[in-house]
Amino acid sequence: MSEIKQNKMGTMPCNKLLLTMSVPMMLSMLVQALYNIVDSIFVSRVSENALTAVSLAFPVQTLMIAIIGGTGVGINARLSRKLGERRFDEVNLTAGNAILLNAIYAAVILIVGQFAASLYYNMMTPDAEIRAYGTDYLYVIMTFSAALIFQVTFERLLQSTGLTIWSMISQTTGAILNIILDPIMIFGLFGCPAMGTRGAALATVVGQTVAACIGLAANLKVNKEIRFEPRFMMPDKQTIAQIYAVGLPSIIMQSIGSVMNFCLNKILLDFSSTAAAVFGVYFKLQSFVFMPVFGLNNGVVPIIAYNYGARRPDRIKETFRYAAIYAMSIMAVGFLLFELIPGQMLALFNASDHMIEIGVPALRFLATPFIVAGYCIMCSSVFQALGHGVLSLWVSLTRQIIVLLPCAFILSRVIGLTGVWAAFPIAEIASAALSILFIRRIMRQEVDTLYND
Q1: pTM for this model (two decimals)
Q2: Checking phi first, is residue 229 left (phi over 0); if not, alpha (psi -120 to 50) or beta?
Q3: Is 423 left (phi over 0), alpha (psi -120 to 50) or beta?
Q4: Domain-wise residue ranges, the chain
């Protein structure tokens, strides 16, 4: 009994707890967003073909991250919930099976990477130079995927038990090391051979390896909630099924973005390559708004899952209320920036006059649903924490596929390019309606019933 009382997720005031767990994740995700832009800047200085090659690897990397991250969501929800229920053997079994599952992923990606990297680029482009640059990059990323996989695994275990500060240290250290090593390995500084795109991939892998080692050390030395023993790493059908009950919809949900991006780019390219470029710039800019909210999401899931297991509906509702306020406030700041200074934001990417002409109204349109999106993301946190990942999947499908793509296609034919941008607020309104319907049902049927127990 005393062991569970010491866990801050059941005792610390909800507002303080939410900030304590979420702020480190928000900061680390901002660093990650910064890294993604800096990495592209360095690669672009090798050549435009090098930048194109690395960009073409994005769908494969997105799929890898979707599988790993989605599994991590399932691990987070189950482990925190069992911790709240004081079922410590199931906590350890969840952690052990997490390591087993991700070891299998690493082995599969390693094997596939030996031949898939070159096949992928041969399929994507006839340009020999882009193929060479891309194969060098993707081969390293896939061969050493274990670095990314175990970085994410150990960070998720830390998040699930409330040790988000160590998760932040792990992720931030890896990202900063990556930024430092990029120019050294790409351009051959300080006696290091110039390796181009292969150097960019190696810098990424080294950063991920260091981050994984920090995460492992923190779990072994600091994380008192989990015991790492071989018996807990034997496959358990019930544990794996419960991980994927939440994780599989999340995997699919995270993969949907790639489909949406591909289809929208096809629509935009019918107008001009500049329109597609504006959409790409938007995604880089909006990551600095959405990343803190996703960090908040990572802090919310274990808190709500823990307190559901501990049968504390008051703490669930209070956490959700604070989280929704913070998420909508962050998105309101982003909305104001996009509405007030879209031209200056585009200028960061050396935008031409034509790009600014298209981009200014585009950014303003695309930012209109930001505040509503913040609320929807927090609703998704509750769905994931309580084991209803399929509800998050339906909201995401509605927003990005069911409503957005048909609206974008039809409106682009009716009112032109503006119709593509107008489809975004329409899709967000539809997903918000669905989120409100689902969250009211969850609160009434599952959270409120805890008061009667």
Answers
A1: 0.67
A2: beta
A3: alpha
A4: 2-452
